[in-house]
Amino acid sequence: MAKDKKVKTNVMRILDAEHIAYTEHTYEVEDGKIDGVSVALKCGEDPDQVFKTLVTEGNDRNFYVFVVPVKQKLDLKACAAAAGVKSVEMIPQKDLLKTTGYIHGGCSPIGMKKQFRTFYDETIILFDTVLVSGGKIGTQVELDPNDLIRITSGTTAAIARDE
């Protein structure tokens, strides 16, 4: 009798290869509600503990990744200061796939086409575990924030502000 094999995302394969413990969370997407707060509620998690991944381009033409709580938005001036550049701005959504390998709603800081400098809002270390995209819409992974920061060579900074 063949076992039903669960399909793993690239994010999960990377975490497995690095021997990093994680929990997969899946959620329904048919209703079209894939914004971060809706995802947190569908997963039964505190929105403060669920983080979204945003990609920017600096005035130096380099890409920077910022990971913030889903209820908050980027403070672009603070992001630029953290990255050591004059300014950053969000990349156009149409450029996300070719830049990162991920689509809007499924962008993870783990496993992008290229490892860009990655910054996490400083609140991430307040939690034992956090959720980030599992690399596709409908999937989140929950893991220790220290493992997440380590695997992406990330740093923390005050980069988020209330909506």
TrEMBL record:
Residue ranges of domain YbaK/aminoacyl-tRNA synthetase-associated in the record: 40-150
For this UniProt record, the keywords arranged alphabetically read as follows: Lyase, Protein biosynthesis
Domain of life (superkingdom): Bacteria
Q: Which NCBIfam families match?
A: YbaK_EbsC
Name the Gene Ontology biological process terms: translation
Q: What is its EC number?
A: 4.2.-.-
In its UniProt entry, the species of origin is given as: Stecheria intestinalis
Protein family per UniProt: Belongs to the prolyl-tRNA editing family. YbaK/EbsC subfamily.
Q: What's the protein called, per UniProt?
A: Cys-tRNA(Pro)/Cys-tRNA(Cys) deacylase
Q: Which GO terms describe its molecular function?
A: aminoacyl-tRNA deacylase activity; lyase activity
